[in-house]
Write a structure and sequence with these properties.
Elements (H helix, E strand, L loop, with lengths): L1 E6 L13 H5 L7 E12 L4 E12 L2 H37 L6
Antiparallel strand pairs: 1-2, 2-3
Length: about 100
């Protein structure tokens, strides 16, 4: 699964631009950046368990956007990593509960 956004993520409201999959793959406006966030599943131990991984990639439209995103990333990187770990843990817990027949509310 892939989630994609285009915007000025370093601004107060993120400056998210309207986009669809076709426009996302095309050129982006000056002063913006493109973010792609994916989730991938891989079988482990002969299919007895599954590895869930996530990766985020950023592409800045120009040098100004690259500098702006770089400053923004310095501030949010630790929090982004924490949120990602908490999210992956919650997905794991839900999947393990469902696999064992448990019902979570």
């Amino acid at each position: 699964m892939l989630i994609g956004l285009v915007g000025r993520f370093w601004t107060i409201h993120g400056g998210i631009c309207d986009t669809d999959s076709e426009r996302f793959r095309g050129p982006i406006d000056a002063g913006t950046a493109r973010a792609a966030w994916n989730f991938a599943l891989a079988p482990l131990h002969g299919g007895e368990s599954t590895l869930l991984a996530t990766e985020t990639r950023i592409q800045a439209a120009d040098a100004q956007a690259r500098r702006s995103f770089g400053r923004y990333w310095l501030l949010i990187r630790p929090f982004s990593g924490l949120i990602r770990r908490l999210m992956l843990r919650a997905i794991r817990d839900e999947a393990e509960s469902a696999a064992s027949g448990g019902i979570r509310q």
